[in-house]
């Protein structure tokens, strides 16, 4: 993970595949020959103490103070470029890694809240110093403040310049490649990064004439939409998207009969109450799915009525929705809500659809249209792909007749594609239109992506060392954290050395997640019985996160209910990331309470979770014909009358595990992929 020098938002480096693709783009003759539409904006020419146009000063170059990973030196020296009579000096950058260095080092140039929105490329000249040595690739990063985050936590957009030699060479890097940044205003830093796994122990470079330029050919962007031609033509024939809504709703398997259920109708007995919730939730998941294709619609929104003319059905879905929907069907069978024949028929229909969808190197795209089955995304997501694999693994262990079909889909996805051997982390995903990887990697252990890491290791497509490369806590000098970690000492488990550590709140010790939300902490428990398999690490952490979620909401926020996790905003303004800030390294803000968080807590503290679910049903107009709606604001009582397939699935699967003795967890643990990583889970003790 990158820990120099500005506490970047997350960590990553480029895969060899991306480096090759990027090199092709950097050297594309059409881009090099294009006439700039606006004058270049020099960041520094190293002939003057400051750039007269950008305001960047030579004194703005800095390195991380007291960085033990390596020593860095830089100075201006004479360096005549053969292509230019104006260039007489350049910046000489020299470094040396410590023998045991694991973390990146580099230099950064402070930028004066720079606006780069008029430009589409960064241009610079660079050559390696053959006398000292150098790597043929460097990572460049722009950084800017992250809205709503502590000052030290910066958003990053990066790219690798590849093909550096001991001769001066000009590189033009498309800003769109630096896909971590969307708004190119307010830039605060430009950094050059060296990584010990792909750089010699010591090396040096010459750098000259850094400038922002506009070529008029910005190249593809991650924001380029995917227009599904068949769906668009269908909507146009009907008169547009709004006119298509009745036809989309007609494809659904059902529709609610009433907006709200009187809480007095709900059973007084706790088990009967949970069984009623499971039945209603399953009816909704089955109803709000495409009848022909067997895919759940991502979102169906109501307002203050179930009138179809005032509702909106989002006929799109993503692969996590599909993976969990497969598990939903098994859960419904185990709960006695459908019989085995209906379960097989439903599963077969969804698998038929999966086998028809467009894929890329065996992976499914992140979003599809449920009506036309066209992909609506350029993105291949690691964590979403993993949840689909998890669903297929549950199916092949619970429905033998479908095992072979599931196995074919599981085997064709090689998670080694997402593994970055330099960072030893899993990247967020890959944009096929760039083509290139996403900016960030999953660098923190205690997030929902840990399940995907286990699957990748269990398949033999990532090494076991990856598990220990994910951070338990960040270094203490990452001063943007919600608190400084305690006990952050070097630990050795199964021959792997890494830093441990934990946070503390009111005497409770825990390893933090990123945002402090319930789904980061507990979503993997839908299939993985961490309290049983990892009682001294992940299992204990799940219980503590649940305790702090409850106590923080009740004692600190003054809420009568608890469960903070990403959900619909009750004011109708989209989707929000909510959490208990002190549970996360960054920590999301408090806000809406969502029933899926309370349901997940059944897997860590069932008694308190049942009390909380009852409170949600009794205090607020939150329980509808298809079970709980998505979220409520406990301060105003305002409800988001939405059904989200993801969140409803989490509720149903948690209920099935609670009511049927961990049935889904047992099917998942029986899979040979997970059998291989079970020893990994139980070996670590977070708090020793």
TrEMBL record:
<dbReference type="InterPro" id="IPR021478">
    <property type="entry name" value="DUF3131"/>
</dbReference>
<dbReference type="Pfam" id="PF10091">
    <property type="entry name" value="Glycoamylase"/>
</dbReference>
<feature type="domain" description="Glycoamylase-like">
    <location>
        <begin position="508"/>
        <end position="670"/>
    </location>
</feature>
<dbReference type="Pfam" id="PF11329">
    <property type="entry name" value="DUF3131"/>
</dbReference>
<protein>
    <submittedName>
        <fullName>DUF3131 domain-containing protein</fullName>
    </submittedName>
</protein>
<dbReference type="InterPro" id="IPR008979">
    <property type="entry name" value="Galactose-bd-like_sf"/>
</dbReference>
<dbReference type="InterPro" id="IPR019282">
    <property type="entry name" value="Glycoamylase-like_cons_dom"/>
</dbReference>
<feature type="domain" description="DUF3131">
    <location>
        <begin position="277"/>
        <end position="412"/>
    </location>
</feature>
